[in-house]
C-alpha cells in the first residue's frame, strides 16, 4: 500500500499533465500512487495518461466536469495512501519534494513549501513571508502588507496532509475560491497547523494564456463568498479581502459603481488598515500596467 497518494486534476492539457505526472513518478520518495482525474470527456488526455506504463498510476475519467474542487475530491476518494498531496496539471515538483515534506508531517498538520513562480516576464520565489502560525491564517492570506504579490501565499500544488484530516474537510465545489476555503476551514474548524518547508520544491507556471479547471471569479461572486465565511475570519481579514481581492477584481472588470459600496462595506463589517485602503485606491487610480512596472523597478528588473 502506498504511503502518499498524489491527486492531479486535469482537462484538455495532455502535454502539461504528462510533465506533472512525470515529476511525481520521479520523486525520491518511492512509496506513492498517482491518481489522475480527467474532469470530463477528453480522449487526448486519456490517451496521453495511458501511454505512461507505471503500476503506481491510476486514471479516473469523470463523465462530466466536476470543477477542480470536485475532481480533487473524486481523486482523494479513490486514494489509498495515509497521506494526500495535490498537484495542478500545469505545475511540477522538484524530485525531493515529498521526501523533504515527509520529514515535517504530523497527524494534525498540513505541510507546504516554497514555490518558484515562472511568468512570461520574470521568475520569483513565493511566499515572501512564510506563515508561522503566530497570527490567524486568514489575516496572513488577506491582510496585504506589501506592494509585491506573493508575500503571503500557500498554493494547492504544495499541499501534503494526513488522509484523516482531509476526510474532515473537503473542497467545496460551489466555492469560487475553493483552495482558500479548504485551507481556511482546515485551520479554523480542525485546528490544523500549517508548516512550511523553507525550500523551493514546486514550480508554478503563471500568466500563460490557457484554459483552466478553476475559472476566475467575478468580483460580486468573491464578495458573496467572503460573506459566507465572515463568522470564521477576523474583521481585519474581512476588510483585507474586500478591498484587496474584491476591490482589485472590480477595478479590473471596470465595475466603477462598486467603488464606494466596497469601501463602505469594508468599514462597516471589517477593520481596514491604512495599507489596505492605500492599495485599494491604487487598484482604481493606477492602471495594472503601471503597477507592474513599479513592482519590476522595485525588484531591480526591466520595466
Automatic annotation (TrEMBL):
Residues 5-129 form the Glycosyltransferase 2-like domain. CDD domains: Glyco_tranf_GTA_type (cd00761). Pfam families: Glycos_transf_2. This is Glycosyltransferase 2-like domain-containing protein.
